[in-house]
Amino acid sequence: LEETGLFFCQICQKNLSAMNLTRREQHVNRCLDEAEKALTPSTPQIPECPICGKPFLSPKSRMSHLKQCAVKMDIGPQLLLQAVRLQTAEPDEASGTPASSFSNHIGGLKRKGAPKRKEPQKKWKVNEPEVPSEDLLV
Question: Region labeled Disordered — which residues (predicted)?
Fold first, then answer.
């Protein structure tokens, strides 16, 4: 095809015949770079919560959530540690994630219904300060 003047990108199969040699090289390099980016994840994957399955953007937010979620779901620290270790030890399975295998392992603690409504927090009455006595003022 090149002898007849037809040039195609080997990656995306786009017709590059109208481009000069420099533009063709740039296009192919760009396609190769995009293919490499697709193969390697740009940011490391942070595992989701093994209890409720919530995804996270940073390890710090994950740690904070794990502690709160364990308290909310009434899960002890030992069981939480076991769940985190189980999650990091097992690679993602095609049939399910470690979060689902953990919830099956401990009897399905994963929530299935609608979340409970939060009741507004009770406000404490603040007593107005008493007028100080004359003796105290002196």
Answer: 88-138
Torsion over CA of 133, 136, 137 and 138, rounded to 10 degrees?
A: 120
| Any domain includes 27 | yes
Q: What is the pLDDT of residues 77-101, one digit of tens each?
A: 888 888 888 887 765 443 344 444 4
More confident call, 105 vs 41: 41
Residue 6 lies in a domain: yes
In angstroms, the CA 13 to CA 134 distance is 93
In this structure, the answer to whether residues 37 and 10 fall within a common structural domain is yes
Same-domain check for residues 17 and 32: yes
- 3-59: pLDDT as tens digits: 677 888 888 888 888 889 899 999 999 999 888 887 766 555 778 888 888 888 888
Residue 53, Ramachandran bin (φ over 0: left; ψ between -120 and 50: alpha; else beta): left
- State how far the Cα of 34 lies from the Cα of 96, in Å rounded to an integer: 29
